[in-house]
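Figure S7 source data.
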Amino acid sequence: MNPNDLATTSENTWCPGCPNNMILASTKKVVSDMINERKFKHEDFAITTDIGCNSKIFDYLKVSGVNALHGRALPLAIGMKIGNPKLKVMAFVGDGAIYAEGMAHFIHAFKYNADMTLVVHDNQSFSLTTGQPTPTSQKGYLSKSEPLGVFDQPINPLKLALASGATFIARTNARDMEHMQEVFRKAIEHKGFSYVEIIQDCLIFNVESNSKDKRMYKIKDNTSKKAAEKIANQYDYNAHKGKIPMGVIYKVNLPTLEEKWPQLKKQLPKRKITSTKKASKKVKISKKKKSKKK
Ligand SMILES: Cc1ncc(C[n+]2csc(CCOP(=O)(O)OP(=O)(O)O)c2C)c(N)n1
Ligand code: SF4
Ligand SMILES: [Mg+2]
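Tokens for the predicted iron/sulfur cluster complex:
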């Protein structure tokens, strides 16, 4: 399969050069690569989206899915997973949708730990509705709805995810397609709920918060919670200076929603024993059995 095989015939109405195009191209590349590697079939993937510029990805990506109300792509995705635990579900949302309307779903999703991926296109703006501030918009952001500027500090969604019990948190840059593809693959392969925050410029609204590439630096995959807290603290979605860490900020393996629910566990494909510890245990047991027989 070629990434272009995942294209549709819908007219692309994103502004020319909008980084949503790069997110779409990266998704097509990773999904088609995984299909070619026979890790999954085309029909194993399913997406949910809601409302916003980002959500037009639903029209441009040839993968099964459902388009939801604003802020409701995530509960719908979890519902899909409960309906068919074998699916590889991805929810694509905007910062407005997930950190405002859908905030409660965001927090609870970490607790459930469904084996799926949440992709947040964070342009620090409600862009489709002409640039009202979202919870991650920087203090002082001037818009038509807040002509005196935003008075509040933005939230830090990464810190919130950590506090809510996240098992996979990564941040990437919509303009760095190689890094984005690497992060998408790791997120899809993670056993549990993977949350990918994409820093995405909007070329029309909240332009002040654009062009942060020079401040970004790549980190190694991190598995320490203490270190993750420090990393998440480095960028507060506000400052015009300081470094922005990019990559897998935290990863841990915990039981998934499908493993916790006995009704769903029955439907999961049986996992092969891969750990050497378990394998050697198996050998010892079979030896014991043999000696008893003697
Ligand atoms: C419950 C609800 N509230 C508000 C809206 C209006 N609305 C539709 S799209 C949108 C902005 C979307 O912003 P975001 O989710 O950040 O996506 P972006 O357009 O920036 O990609 C808003 C406020 C709505 N459709 N439903
Ligand atoms: S308004 Fe911004 S986010 Fe929406 S399509 Fe245009 S550049 Fe992209
Ligand atoms: Mg937005």
